[in-house]
Amino acid sequence: MVSALPDELWLDIFDLAVDDADLFDHTLPTAFSEASWFKTLYGDWSLRTAQEGVNNAQRRSYATKKSIMATCRTWRRLGYEFFYRFLFFSNPRNIQRVCALMDRDKDLGRWVKRLHITRYFAGGGTTMETTQNSLVSIIRHCPNLQIFVVNWPLSNTLKAVGDALCTYCPRSLRVLHINIPTRSLARLIFMLQCLPQLVTTHIEFDGTPPEQINLGAASDLALTLKKLQHLSLRGPFQDFLEEAIGWNLPSLKALCLDFVNHRDDFPDLLEFLRMHGAELTLLDLNIIPTLDVSAILDLCPLLTTFTFNPDWRIPGWEHHPFLESSMVRRPHANITTIGLHHLLYAFGVGYAATYDKVDPFATQMIRRRNDVNFAALNKRNFPRLEHIRVLNTTLLSDLEANNGPSQKCYERGETLGTLPMDPEDEEEEDESVVSEGPPQLSTLRELLMECRRMNAQREMDVAPPALRMVYAGTSRLS
What predicted TM-score, i.e. pTM, was given to this entire model? Predict the structure, then answer.
């Protein structure tokens, strides 16, 4: 049977079997990427993030490829192309093993399009220097590398790894995901200058930024990244963003900023958007300090997807006829999806439940901000608005563990009014009801009503509708 079919047909069959086509997209997971629920060994529900889902997909694909290559000699010969199409490492010792194989057979690297190194525990019988040398050697053998993802900090290895990428695959690399120290900004800028074909870039900055950073010659570089469409920054990225204001980014469509727990020294985002915001279609702001939302939306007229922090103290609601925050100066014509970060205090679960007992006044102030910001998410301000999604995975896990919001938040939701329920709307599990007029149809009340219905269906071994609605786009897997 094996010898009766031509190699080309077997290659097509294997391509369908390994199911790894999505791993070669020139994209990275975002806040809107699908997460999934699964049951742990202890019978509890837990949330698997989109990045963990990608890691599991790579492991499953590897298992299929190993089975193919272990079947017979013909399948082993044909399976090499698929086995080395992407490299996924969670153990540093495997980096050394693959490096040794590529040193012996230099043709193996020409198949590699994706190289992903996830976080791992220290140790493993190897040193950082040995791992660095092996990684650099692997990159040297991969002239067609398109996607490079490293989830652990490149503290002492950035120079060697960056030089390897810029030397051996500057024209092929499309996706870059790295974690670097804040003090290495100058080296990063030189590295980006040598990678003009980048389409998607995620940079995570580690450590406290120096009070005054000396960029040297890098400060005078006006980079031109003509193909960069998606820029994602995490950590204390203020110095990088300030430098990027003067760059040429004509294709930028998506900007994702996660300032983590930092509150001070936020960069001049408005100035960046004045230079690069006119063509943005996605703007993700996971930031604690309050920003001028109305000015941001004015600078980004083509946005279809926008996320912000509903804990922000957006002014103007005290004098608004509908008691909603002044989120827009004029209706935004294109936004269809709004994502909400934080919201830890809105439902009285998890850490917020404990803090509510310590400082109830502060908690109530934050919840009041949530109310007026939710009230502004309506058809008057956003005529094309279709979806509102809560993006905080910690909040979702707390709601699941607490069996819904606290009773105090249920009562608070009742004081806001009763939602008229439409049977067709109840069947829609991935959409939030968007109000067209008064705040009686605020999204927060819809979330609370969905959580109430969740309790009534708790005994069913299916995903609670409240959680599916709160995190539209997630799925539950057993």
Answer: 0.83
